[in-house]
Amino acid sequence: MTGQQRPNVIVILNDDMGYSDIGCYGGEVETPNLDTLALNGLRYSQFYNTARCSPSRASLLTGLHPHQTGIGVLTYDMGPEGYVGNLSRNSVTIPEVLKGSGYRTYMSGKWHIAASLYEPSDAWPTRRGFDEFYGTIIGAGSFFHPNTLTRGEENVEHEAEEDPEFFYTDTISDQAADYIRTHNAEHSNAPFFLYTAYTAPHWPLHAHPEDIAKYKGRFDAGWDTLRQERLDRLVRAGILDASWKLSDRDPSQPPFEDATDKEWLTRCMEVYAAQIDRMDQGIGRILDALEETSQLDNTLIVFLSDNGGCAEDIPEDVPPEQLVEALDIARYKTRDGRPVRIGNDRSVMPGPEDTYQSYETAWANLSNAPFRLYKHWIHEGGISTPLIMHWPAGIERTGDINHCPGQLTDIMATIVDVTGATYPEHFADHAIPPCEGESMAPDFVAPRDGRAPLFWEHEGNAGVRDGNWKLVRKYPGDWELYDMVKDRTELTDLAPQHPDRVRDMIAMYDAWAARCGVIAREKILKIMADKNENAFWEKEG
Question: C-alpha angle 86/423/507, rounded to 5°?
Fold first, then answer.
């Protein structure tokens, strides 16, 4: 920015958290540090992720749609080209862009955009622009003993084994704060970029007893009552419109009054809340480090989630080897040798290291209130995220709420804009596609009227947001059309009344999908079926 010192930038991303979980977005979880950032910064009411963890991380870091980066689904080979599960060299990351402009770059937390988990590759953080890295390469795992824990390019899982107080959320926070202090001591003449990527509150449900105790009884009213209370708070805060109605309870779930095992159910949500609470405590320590080093005022802080709340259950009969050996996201035993009880056995209370559980569909429905559906889907419950921007030196609309829609590709565009960096046409001998996003920096001064259309695709689920209209598909169902000014909770499908608009928006989607390398879901399913058949015959042979 002309005439001003270039800002530091901190991007804080958390994992599998719904739109309305944190306090400043209507939730029950105590998040005083995020609430302070929101009240002294800018909140966004209509910001969107990609509905899944790896694609969201790839899109956020590159300013491209995930299909352009090699991360069409997850970090597994979903073939053919474009879905290799590895961050492509035909993209450039935020730290790679900022290093070219004199920034120091640091990362603490979850990576999950590299296929190689233990052997360094071109898709590892240290080879995609980060001067320093501490975190996990894999996407999920125990908070007490995570797999693939890495410092630089060295496996340091032993650090968790040797420290009985180790808890991954805490170490992510503390490493981020240490980076800030060390940078100030050793590189104070340069600005920094810090990417802090929590695994909280992704399952397994692991938390400290004292944090869980804070929420004892807080969710006893049940998901039906709490969903309505969240909507009421969101309306009072000016984040959502009073005319938007609460979506129905997930049809697969009973009314809370009819649910069984209520003690176990409410304990799940108490642990989930404790996971977010612990993250907020750590964010407080990051803010303390900024204040101690006199860098808070000129640091742009961005906070958001990678997808909506997750309705993936962990069945009681899940084969442990699937999580431990095939996916490498769990362990058979705790650090002191006790067996880990994997699965949502309702006689086992979640929270300790020897459990591995999820909070199930009804609570995910609460996390995404008032919207429909979850992680994986392009309906509002799957893609809507809280977004908080805080930058005392650069944001004039402090305490305001911004209603202009945006999506992950806008993060790169915004950071390039406010830092004065240059997004390249070529990098490391590779041609780089143009950034797909729009800078949100104008929002810091005054509301924008609108923006170019937004697009999504994940596992055949797809969507287009064009002004007030959203076209969306739950694969393999038909396209649905919603007026997002009158009906953001997507209760009244207007596709039958507007066939011409549906046709035109499908054409927009098809053109985008062809340009960005989206592969038809049918083709992906056939490829995977062929791979499975070949694997069967190889095994039998």
Answer: 70
